[in-house]
Write a sequence for this structure.
């Protein structure tokens, strides 16, 4: 009887271990509303334990940017703009090498090949356009394109500041920091109503009033806005009684002295 008793106990232990394994496995699975089972691991996705699976980070992605090495999406490539300078070099036909500037209409004029649209294209896309343009002149044209010069990100500060003008945006800056870069407030400035103008599209500008006087006095810059490329900071001399949140570009000139730029 003793061997039989040992065998029975062994089976009971095996069943217990198997049941525990099923319970642990079930905790690593989650059923979505459609009835599908999807496994999750908080240590890999960054989702908290018991968190919503819809907010869990996807592999290779972070803050909607993505890691190319992990199969995610890469950052958008730079697209050519007016006044950008590109250099075109040919492997077997150096006589066609040239340096081109994107014209205000968005085109460049290639040597012997005429005008080609460049604005809005990435460097690889523009390289392909150049190769197509020279297909009738060269057999299998091999052209390399390099971006030589481009407009740097900038911001503009106007109104009652020491040095109004256009400045390169080289790092993360706030409106208060931009004013200091532009020479600080003048004695006639109304720094309780600093205006931040931000382009929405080609025709529309968003306006935001900032009370820098209060922020600086209370040493509380939590509400200080961070600049984006192309932003315009205006420090008025007089009180602005009313300003719309959205303005057309011509309407912006009503609030500032254009002769300062």
């Amino acid at each position: 009887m003793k061997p039989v008793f040992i065998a029975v106990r062994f089976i009971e232990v095996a069943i217990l271990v198997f049941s525990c394994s099923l319970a642990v496995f079930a905790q690593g699975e989650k059923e979505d509303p459609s009835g599908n089972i999807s496994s999750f691991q908080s240590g890999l996705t960054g989702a908290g334990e018991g968190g919503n699976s819809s907010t869990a980070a996807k592999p290779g992605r972070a803050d909607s940017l993505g890691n190319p090495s992990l199969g995610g999406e890469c950052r958008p490539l730079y697209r050519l703009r007016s006044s950008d300078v590109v250099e075109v070099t040919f492997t077997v036909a150096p006589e066609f090498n040239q340096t081109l500037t994107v014209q205000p209409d968005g085109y460049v004029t290639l040597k012997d090949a005429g005008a080609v649209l460049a604005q809005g294209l990435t460097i690889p896309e523009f390289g392909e356009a150049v190769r197509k343009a020279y297909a009738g002149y060269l057999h299998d044209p091999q052209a390399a394109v390099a971006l030589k010069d481009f407009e740097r990100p900038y911001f503009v500060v106007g109104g009652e500041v020491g040095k109004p003008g256009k400045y390169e945006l080289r790092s993360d800056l706030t409106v208060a920091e931009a004013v200091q870069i532009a020479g600080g407030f003048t004695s006639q400035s109304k720094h309780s109503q600093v205006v931040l103008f931000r382009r929405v599209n080609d025709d529309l500008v968003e306006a935001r009033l900032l009370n820098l006087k209060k922020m600086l006095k209370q040493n509380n810059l939590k509400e200080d806005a961070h600049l984006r490329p192309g932003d315009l900071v205006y420090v008025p001399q007089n009180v602005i009684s009313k300003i719309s949140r959205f303005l057309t570009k011509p309407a912006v000139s009503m609030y500032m002295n254009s002769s300062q730029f």
